[in-house]
Task: structure prediction
Amino acid sequence: MDEVNAFIRDNELGPGAVIPSESSFAERTGVSRAVAREAFRAMSALKLIDVGNGRRAKVAPADESVVSFMIDHAVRTRQVTVQQILDVRRTIELRTVALAALRRTDREAREIDGIAAEMRTSFAQPERVMELDIAFHEAIARASRNPLFVLLVGAFRVVTRQTWSIGWASRPSDAGRHQSVDGHALIAAAIVARDVRGAETAMADHFDLTVKVLLNAGVN
Result:
């Protein structure tokens, strides 16, 4: 695996680039083809290379699924709490929203604002609101123009799906639920206006409210 990684790095290969065969790496490293095959399988499982039947392996694009799997494992095995994840998310997303307010295109601003508006019109469909909520935060990450933020925010999707319905149900009334939905509209409006400070404040308020609701629901 180190040899394959070194080859990709030394040859400056990008996503989609073809890499030599298992046999080539077996010969290069002086190991059996079975060992090289296992290395390819392991790297494929980690989404570092794309291996398909009947074709040469290729360099894979960055994929949040492995990070997401690790985060989910850490939560389920009680190595990390949901509140600790929210603490990290809050830190990350205060930066993504600031960058989005600075760097977003008009199309991205319309997309983010449109998602926030659809959250309001879909209020009676909680599952739809949840998916829109996820899409909203990921759209902001894309507008930040930092692909690592896109990867990290996308990786939190699995935990969001586990806790979102708890937070929704724990709000004592529709007024409380509307407060959460309206918070997204405030964030979107600040991004549209290129108001960096306003975007950061609205995002901080949004996360602080989420943390409070989940704590009251017993989610630590």
